[in-house]
Design brief:
Elements: E1 2-6, H1 15-27, E2 32-37, H2 51-63, E3 67-72, H3 75-83, E4 89-91, H4 93-98, H5 100-107, E5 113-116, E6 133-137, E7 163-166, H6 172-179, E8 184-188, H7 207-225
Parallel strand pairs: 1-2, 1-8, 2-3, 4-5, 5-6, 6-7, 7-8
Helix pairs in contact: 1-2, 6-7
Length: 228
């Protein structure tokens, strides 16, 4: 099981808060702390991360022994990510639709790449000519309500989908996905769900919720592999 704490913009543009998010994500059982490079990232915007800021984030991740990963939204952020030799990549649903050439450029690096399907509506999976992709099922709705999740795969392995990127409130759907074979879970992570700086805080898991998710989720997966 791999658990990704999507920190995204939940640092509110504050590197000190970012450091605490990373620390708490590690405590909560996350394997990966994930950021977004190139989204709302112009100078003066909430998610402006330059090389100096990125180097600091990498040092914090290294100190707390949690893997850094980022979604890449444009060519400039792709170049920034290559400067740090990012070990694996995440591709957001929006990028799959808006910039398929960028997706191909990332995939051509032949590094492990996790791709979200939240805006993908075709029956066949995208970019199947590449073998370094793991797909995540999701709905690009913020938050995703229970009645919008009726197409959640009944068997992730059968669909050739590795995991689930969760935008719902709570952790129940993520646990349901694990029981159905999802082995990668991405969940937004916050220290304060009542923070209204951006919408993502309300649909995120706080540290205790995320810790419950990772603990139960790993046990769910073990039992599923035993055939229970």
């Amino acid at each position: 099981m791999i658990f990704i704490a999507e920190l995204g913009l939940n640092h509110n543009g504050n590197l000190e808060l970012c450091s605490e998010l990373i620390r708490q994500a590690k405590w909560a059982g996350a394997d990966i702390a994930k950021f977004q490079l190139g989204w709302k990232a112009k100078e003066g915007e909430l998610n402006h991360i330059n090389k100096e800021s990125l180097d600091k984030i990498l040092k914090i991740c290294d100190y707390y022994d949690i893997e850094f990963m980022a979604s890449i939204f444009n060519e400039e952020s792709f170049e920034l990510s290559k400067s740090i030799n990012q070990s694996q990549y995440k591709i957001a649903s929006r990028t799959v639709i808006d910039n398929p050439e960028l997706v191909r450029s990332i995939l051509k690096l032949n590094k492990p790449t996790i791709l979200s399907l939240g805006m993908w509506e075709k029956p066949e999976l995208p970019f199947q000519d590449f073998k370094n992709i793991k797909y995540l099922w999701c709905k690009s709705m913020y938050p995703t309500m229970p009645w919008d999740l009726k197409s959640l795969p009944k068997d992730f392995e059968e669909k050739n989908i590795a995991g689930y990127s969760d935008h719902s409130i709570g952790i129940e759907t993520a646990l349901l996905a694990i029981s159905r074979g999802a082995t990668i879970i991405e969940k937004h992570f916050t220290l304060d769900k009542s923070d209204v700086t951006i919408r993502d805080h309300s649909l995120s898991a706080d540290p205790q919720e995320f810790r419950t998710l990772t603990t139960l989720g790993r046990n769910f997966n073990k039992n599923r592999l035993l055939g229970i």
